[in-house]
Amino acid sequence: MSLLEPISHALAAVLATAHHALTSLGAAPDGAATWVLATASLVLLVRLLLLPFVVHGVRQAHAAARARPHLRGIAERYRGRTDADSVRAHLDERRTVSAEHGVSRLGCLPVLVQLPVWVALYHLVSDVASGTVVGAMDAGLVSSFGAASIVGVSLAGHGYVGPGAAHVAVVAGLAVTAALLSYVTQRYVVAPNTPLEGMPEAVLAAQRVMPALSAGGLLLAGGVVPVALLVYWVCSQTWTLGQSAVVARWWPTPGTPAAARRA
């Protein structure tokens, strides 16, 4: 059994429950709107459950930003000193400063915890779109999912090339929307809230190209992934943009352009 299987089955149960709730309210079982809303509900629930990890990540980013000037000063003071006593003293001072500012040595833990959820969610939508039964998403629901279509374009359809202009319009529209949301988030919300002072040129260069790479990756993926996965990406990117905007506006990282605007 895959390590991700329990997570995938839990997410499948949420998706199936959301579909059942919508159909009990009168939504069409095989309707694209029903499955799109069910997918959006799944994204909403997952994002709400992961909010504590987001809050922890924001606090760690603030702590690291406050500690960074002091850590740079320590690094300058011990530059070129490679004897054992200096190395030991350097590490002790770094630990002391990090502890004073609340920087955790497990700062990457929230990302590591969230990663399996995102991978499982990706595979769930992809597997269901390909006709694979996953937990509570039984054969009937998988068939219903595959039968759903947006103006004639199946949620299980793949790629930009398909029968008629509607297929191209739907797939390209979803891919471009997801890519645009990603670009705006990275370029105009995340970048201004990321401290770059004192960072190596390689890091600065990566930061500059990240928005375009992220958007370009989504556009390329739009040519091979199921339409349902594009729907999921649009929902997820919409939440990411809103969440990032709230953090940058109300809890900006110290020492960033976002914090300067907030002051």
Automatic annotation (TrEMBL):
<dbReference type="Pfam" id="PF02096">
    <property type="entry name" value="60KD_IMP"/>
</dbReference>
<keyword id="KW-0472">Membrane</keyword>
<feature type="transmembrane region" description="Helical">
    <location>
        <begin position="36"/>
        <end position="58"/>
    </location>
</feature>
<dbReference type="GO" id="GO:0032977">
    <property type="term" value="F:membrane insertase activity"/>
</dbReference>
<feature type="transmembrane region" description="Helical">
    <location>
        <begin position="209"/>
        <end position="234"/>
    </location>
</feature>
<dbReference type="InterPro" id="IPR028055">
    <property type="entry name" value="YidC/Oxa/ALB_C"/>
</dbReference>
<keyword id="KW-0812">Transmembrane</keyword>
<feature type="transmembrane region" description="Helical">
    <location>
        <begin position="141"/>
        <end position="161"/>
    </location>
</feature>
<comment type="similarity">
    <text>Belongs to the OXA1/ALB3/YidC family. Type 1 subfamily.</text>
</comment>
<comment type="function">
    <text>Required for the insertion and/or proper folding and/or complex formation of integral membrane proteins into the membrane. Involved in integration of membrane proteins that insert both dependently and independently of the Sec translocase complex, as well as at least some lipoproteins. Aids folding of multispanning membrane proteins.</text>
</comment>
<protein>
    <recommendedName>
        <fullName>Membrane protein insertase YidC</fullName>
    </recommendedName>
</protein>
<feature type="transmembrane region" description="Helical">
    <location>
        <begin position="168"/>
        <end position="189"/>
    </location>
</feature>
<feature type="domain" description="Membrane insertase YidC/Oxa/ALB C-terminal">
    <location>
        <begin position="35"/>
        <end position="248"/>
    </location>
</feature>
<dbReference type="GO" id="GO:0005886">
    <property type="term" value="C:plasma membrane"/>
</dbReference>
<dbReference type="GO" id="GO:0051205">
    <property type="term" value="P:protein insertion into membrane"/>
</dbReference>
<dbReference type="InterPro" id="IPR001708">
    <property type="entry name" value="YidC/ALB3/OXA1/COX18"/>
</dbReference>
<feature type="transmembrane region" description="Helical">
    <location>
        <begin position="103"/>
        <end position="121"/>
    </location>
</feature>
<comment type="subunit">
    <text>Interacts with the Sec translocase complex via SecD. Specifically interacts with transmembrane segments of nascent integral membrane proteins during membrane integration.</text>
</comment>
<keyword id="KW-1133">Transmembrane helix</keyword>
